[in-house]
Write a structure and sequence with these properties.
Structural class: alpha+beta
Largest sheet: 6 strands, antiparallel
Number of helices: 2
Strand content: over 45%
Radius of gyration: 13 Å
Mean pLDDT: 93
Distance between the termini: 32 Å
Oligomer: single chain
């Protein structure tokens, strides 16, 4: 995909998910070249995983609600899910040079 398509997708997410645009940042974390953070606003909770490395990475998302479901919003196709355990920790694989955005449900 092109850089223009990426920016359009990010703007669309920002415009349709208030937590991305105005949410407070939670649980920033760096695992090698992979970083993650969460945003929460008025009951909506999202998580973002970014891998700026040339190799696949793993992001550990901590501080999630126990047994939370993570529904992928980006990249398409949306819907692939991950889940947190009872301890509120989820592990997400991150392809090289990738961005993933998840909607977190409790």
């Amino acid at each position: 995909g092109s850089m223009l398509a990426f920016y359009r997708a990010m703007l669309a997410l920002r415009n349709t998910h208030p937590s991305i645009a105005r949410g407070r940042y939670l649980a920033p974390r760096v695992d090698g070249r992979t970083m993650s953070f969460q945003r929460v606003f008025e009951g909506e909770h999202t998580a973002v995983v970014i891998n700026d490395g040339d190799a696949a990475g793993i992001a550990t998302l901590a501080g999630l609600p126990a047994n939370a479901r993570l529904q992928r919003l980006y990249p398409a196709p949306a819907g692939a899910a991950a889940a947190a355990g009872p301890d509120g920790i989820a592990t997400v694989a991150a392809a090289p040079l990738s961005v993933q955005v998840y909607l977190v449900s409790h």
